[in-house]
Design goal:
single chain, about 180 residues, 3-stranded parallel beta sheet, about 40% helix, elongated
Length: about 180
């Protein structure tokens, strides 16, 4: 119930019945409960489609290098899809720096280094960042069917034309045709 304080434009609130007051406890009990609620802070709901991980471990300070890019450019959901155990053990992400791909490789490496990649469990994925086809060829030559370790290749071609050529080259590779990549 709301009532106006005499001689002011401010309102005060009071309880309708004494029984409600008896259920809440005394003034000190109510003030203690309210102060505990205030100290806890707001409840944060987790949504993996929007949550972006911090690079620092929980409870540790963020380094000066991480201040420039303190959160991952990928959401937890995007990382989970990238490291999905049902799909091929090696995933390749190809894109241009203009689209922000230069941040993705560094982010995955930092998050993997502190063992906080979502959806991966205990296995430690290998994160590789490549610049051109000459960097890709040895990786593709080394991929074996028995190798089930999760691997992410972040490929950053110099231009859109080069990206198109390299994607066409990738499509013809035996490890891609076998479903390993």
């Amino acid at each position: 119930m709301r009532s106006r304080l005499p001689g002011t434009n401010r309102f005060t609130y009071c309880l309708r019945t004494r029984q409600v007051g008896a259920m809440l406890g005394g003034r000190e009990d109510i003030e203690t409960a309210l102060s505990q609620i205030m100290e806890r802070g707001p409840a944060v709901s987790y949504d993996r489609t929007t949550h972006r991980r911090r690079y620092a471990q929980p409870g540790k300070a963020i380094s000066a290098a991480d201040l420039e890019l303190p959160y991952s450019p990928l959401t937890d959901f995007q990382i989970e899809r990238l490291l999905d155990r049902v799909s091929a053990p090696t995933q390749i992400v190809c894109g241009l720096d203009v689209l922000g791909l230069n941040k993705v490789g560094a982010a995955l490496k930092r998050i993997a280094a502190i063992s906080q990649l979502p959806g991966i469990g205990k296995s430690n994925p290998e994160i590789l960042v490549t610049e051109g086809r000459r960097d890709l060829r040895p990786i593709f030559d080394g991929i074996r069917k028995a190798d089930a370790r999760p691997r992410v290749i972040v490929h950053r071609p110099a231009s859109a034309a080069e990206a198109s050529e390299e994607l066409a080259w990738l499509e013809r590779q035996s490890s891609v045709l076998d479903g390993q990549v």
